[in-house]
């Protein structure tokens, strides 16, 4: 039975509300407060990525997915295309935020690569149970405040890929429930954790990881997990 992805719509609304609050706080906070918020968010992102990575059950699948996904992203020039798209949207909206695209991509990854996204899609798509997505909405709403205070208005517009990805997963789960096995969920979460870890390194200025180019890894790991039982 097909269910309207109400959970995803509520989640998007929470991100818009939290992100708007964060943007207001960003302009109100002095630079040194924004700086410590940036560092704290980076450390928490590293911790989140680590917790996600330990869920992996087949390291070879995750490693292969990240490598193949990264090569695919570079072949497609995904980083540049997303940056150009973000800049075009920023120009169309007459926004002067230099970190708009970074904020959009970073927020999307933080909100959408965890196990709650996958499990919530399964619960809502198959049973019409939106409890997990409503819980995720509360968490993402508060998280978006900190993200927007750090990255700016791009966080608010992360709801566009969020609606497409999370809503699409919900509709897919309604039609292909057996595809989302516990093993696949674990591998998707772990691969997402690698990307989130890259975000944390970027936030702390430790490295410059092209996380956008690694996005195809999330598709590759689903395919590999389906083939490798």
Cα-based radius of gyration, to the nearest Å: 17 Å
| Structural class by secondary-structure content | mainly alpha
First-to-last CA distance: 28 Å
Fraction of residues in H or I helices: over 70%
Give the strand content: under 5%
Domain count: 1
Report mean pLDDT, rounded to a whole number. Answer: 85
Helix tally equals 10
Classify the oligomer. Answer: single chain
Please report the total strand number as a whole number: 0
Biggest pleated-sheet summary = none
- Overall body shape: globular
- Sequence stretches where pLDDT stays below 50 over 5 or more residues: none
What is the H-and-E element order? HHHHHHHHHH
Question: What can you see in these coordinates?
Answer:
With 229 residues, the protein is mostly helical. The protein has one domain (6-227). It has 10 helices and no strands. It has helices at 6-28, 31-53, 59-75, 78-92, 100-112, 115-127, 131-151, 159-175, 182-203, 217-227. The longest helix has 23 residues, at 6-28. It is globular and about 50 Å long. The two termini are 28 Å apart.
Question: Keywords, please?
Answer:
single chain, 229 residues, mainly alpha, 10 helices, 76% helix, 0% strand, globular
Structure summarized in a few sentences:
The chain is built from ten helices and no strands. It is an all-alpha fold and about 230 residues long.
Layout of helices and strands:
Blueprint: H1 6-28, H2 31-53, H3 59-75, H4 78-92, H5 100-112, H6 115-127, H7 131-151, H8 159-175, H9 182-203, H10 217-227
């Amino acid at each position: 039975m097909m269910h309207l992805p109400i959970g995803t719509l509520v989640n998007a609304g929470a991100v818009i509300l939290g992100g708007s609050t964060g943007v207001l706080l960003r302009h109100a906070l002095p630079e040194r407060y924004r700086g410590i918020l940036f560092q704290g968010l980076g450390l928490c992102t590293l911790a989140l990525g680590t917790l996600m990575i330990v869920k992996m059950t087949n390291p070879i699948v995750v490693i292969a997915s990240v490598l193949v996904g990264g090569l695919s992203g570079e072949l497609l020039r995904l980083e540049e295309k997303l940056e150009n798209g973000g800049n075009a949207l920023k120009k169309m909206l007459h926004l002067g935020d230099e970190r708009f695209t970074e904020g959009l991509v970073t927020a999307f990854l933080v909100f959408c690569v965890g196990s709650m996204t996958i499990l919530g899609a399964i619960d809502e798509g198959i049973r019409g149970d939106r409890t997990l997505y409503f819980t995720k909405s509360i968490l993402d709403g508060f998280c978006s405040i900190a993200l927007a205070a750090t990255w700016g208005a791009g966080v608010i517009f992360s709801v566009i890929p969020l609606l497409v990805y999370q809503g699409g997963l919900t509709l897919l789960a309604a039609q292909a429930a057996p595809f989302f096995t516990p093993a696949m969920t674990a591998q998707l979460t772990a691969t997402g954790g690698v990307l989130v870890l890259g975000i944390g390194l970027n936030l702390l200025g430790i490295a410059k990881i092209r996380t956008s180019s690694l996005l195809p890894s999330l598709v590759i790991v689903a395919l590999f997990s389906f083939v490798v039982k």
